[in-house]
Amino acid sequence: MGAKPLIEKASWTLVDQGAVSVGNFLLNLVLARSLSEQEYGEFALFLGAIFILRNIDYSFISYPLSLRLCLASNDEERARLLGNTSLLAAALALVLVVVMAIGITLLKVDNIVLPACLCYLCWQVQETSRRCLLADFLYREAVTGDGIAFVGQALLVVLLAWLNVITLAGALYAMSVTFAIGAVVHASKLRYGWPDLAETRALAGEYFSVGKWSLINYQLVLSRVQIFPWMLAALAGTAATASLQAALNIANMMNPIIFGIGNAIPQVSAHAYRTGGAIGAARAAYGYVLFGLGPILLISAIAVLMPELLLRLAYGPSSPYLAVATGLQFLAIAGVLDYIAEMINKTLLGVRAGRLACVVNVAALGVAAVLAFALIGTQGVFGACLALLIANLVRATGAVVAIAWLIADEKSRERARSGAVGSPAAADKALGASAEQ
To answer: pTM (2 decimals)?
Structure first.
């Protein structure tokens, strides 16, 4: 891919993800300022549950679609594929919302069962339609719907806070409204065919086969991150979880780049892999990764050098969250390592090397679990941030080793094939075959 198309595609994916992340950042900022520490801690746990359930949908619906859509030969086939995929997504969403309702009930926060489930369903519809656009590289077309969904929800919550009527349930209802509108905007830019049950069943088997390694990998990735807020909640209460989330809100300023570039990597590497193998896929992904690395390093440097200032600007001069300045520095460094590891992980999934990615993520989760038990009990939020930094370092190192091994193995196989073709025995065999013809 030339520089101009790469920059154009990478720029639009960053603009789109920027709208998503800016909205999420503003939402978390307003809720952290407006809700009690206990309620904001509950919201942080709700987001963690959403991400876990969203990963199931991403792995079995969005990720396989991103690899399958590029093979569609015409608009008619594309429309049928989107129609059948949407039916699968709807069926899966109904199962997952029941899981969410049971989980909320078991956690004894029954007052948010209805708004949380409604928010999840609306979010799911919005995200599925969004992924249909991204799978076809339509990043520019996704910006409007994502802006309405994510920036819109932040503005509605700001209004609730200004009117002094904000509650956790009210915030979830507001999010539901904007997600529903965003889903309608996304769907208006897509053409869906009427689902065919026979095709849908066949597609379900294909999607499961393709997505199982993605599911395993990203459940490992999410578990590595989510183990910390949940363990803090168990050992120190939801107020400690709120403090960790407050620091993550600042460190997550890198998310537009991590998620934005990451949204393009599987499709890009899958396209390149078909003609250039793992080496071609790595080269194609490298341009995107390099495009986002500069901003990632800049954001990390600002957070490391001025953590107190960022926290004060975000939460006010008397906020209890100012105490997590050192933890924010650790999280900022961890974010750079997460970017490197995540881009390689996406590349491995794009070339169907899910098992290799799984080995890396298992190692990182193991380190995170051990350090969580060792550090959170004595160091609290500080220990959680330090443990996440070390776990991300392990993951980034393992990812670099994995992609290097994959490329070296492919080069070795190519040399072996070249040697076999160029050997005297191979030449004699080719000559004999030519004579027979």
So the answer is: 0.68
